[in-house]
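Record pair follows.
FIRST:
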Amino acid sequence: MSTNGSNGHGSGLAGGVFICLYGPSKAGKTVASAAAGAQGVFIGDPAGLMSAQRFLGIEKLNILPAKTVPEAVAQIEKALKKKTPSIVIDDFSLIVESTINEYESSKGRAGMWSALTRDVLAARDAARAATAQGTVVIFNCHEQPPRTSSGKFIRGGPSLPGQLPEKFSGMVDVIGRAMFEPTAAPWKYQLCFEPQADYVSGDRLSVFPGRAPMNVAEGLRAAGYKIPY
């Protein structure tokens, strides 16, 4: 695990990082994200964050509700203006699903996919702008297996439609896949950051080891990032 203090990561807002975690339901992604971003802003469904709040013993999280991707983008931009230390977009896959449901009725099949692609990439770009300001940004998503879309092989990764998993992941600094590991203790899931043939994963900043416990906060601290307890 490398130390990135020379890049300004040890000075709080001086060094941001864009992280995406994905995996099966109940793997611990929300709790891991919440522990790393407890002092920042959370975007998503308040009900979905209650379990993390109880598990971590946090009295109150700063939650900005968002049911659709445009709402999430607006909340990221709102947080960006306040220079918050961290932004967690919880269960982004469900936010995308809600957006699809809304667009099916408002835009029809013809305009739905182009609008969705535009909005997801806008969320990605807003997150990138936040990291340039020094903010730690974490998206967590469900997992989808490898598949073929329009004749093109798409690696498994965050649960997003079409070719969006590859397009979205291309701008992410660190992407980790939550994988079941029976030998792990006490939690049976680990994060895989090392390259995989059929799944998207990687760490261009060398923040985490190839396989790591579901403890994003401690991994960031060990790499020199200033993450409040």
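SECOND:
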Amino acid sequence: SIAGKLGFTSDPVEANDVLEGTVYIFSQARDSFVATPKTGVLDYTLNELPSAINKQITENEIKNTAQSFLVDNGFVTPDEIVFGELLFLREAPGEGYYPSTRESASFYQVNFYPKAASRTILKLNPQDSLIGVRILPDGEVFSAHVVRLGTLSESSSQYKLKSYSEFSNDIGKAVLVSLDEGNIYLPDLPAGAVSKVSISEVELAYFLEAKDSLILQPVYLLRGEASVSGYPGTVSAFLYLPAISLSN
């Protein structure tokens, strides 16, 4: 149904994955759509990043374009998602994507989260949004990534979050999950490469440990900067810290 709304008329290529199940691949000259029903993962993208005239569309126009694309093509219903954040990203050839201004961005990324969750849901990579749409400066949708979690329900049990004192005492246990907007591959860093991390922002969110996880656990997302051997100055850093108090 989604593939038809996106304009794909040919039957998909089917591939079977031991873990992911059946994968349906729709492809034509201009764009592609891949659906994995077992895991609820849906991916749409243009096959090439075209050059686009910067029409200076407003933030509301960007958000509305992203939401309309998801709703009109059947990825989600209007009542299922809530706007999360709007990012302006610029491509650095051979390096990756970095935060930018709207005027110089290569594309705009609009992230949403499931309305039932009431707050952002994070995956192992904080840059990897659960529901995200990338829009070119001329207003055309470049790609969309949607992970459908099924029905979400709040736990009947209540858990106390860490107090400021517990948070301060445990901050050294926070796990570093991303450096330089995800452009530094953490497993490649030698021991001791990160010499200092400064935290400037904290956000309470939920953590999806794996696509088949049955529980979303509250975590603190810590944002800041880090000093990394071999990189001049500082780079952005994201860390996760479990948010539930041990005194529950």
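COMMENT: DSSP finds three helices and 14 strands in the chain.
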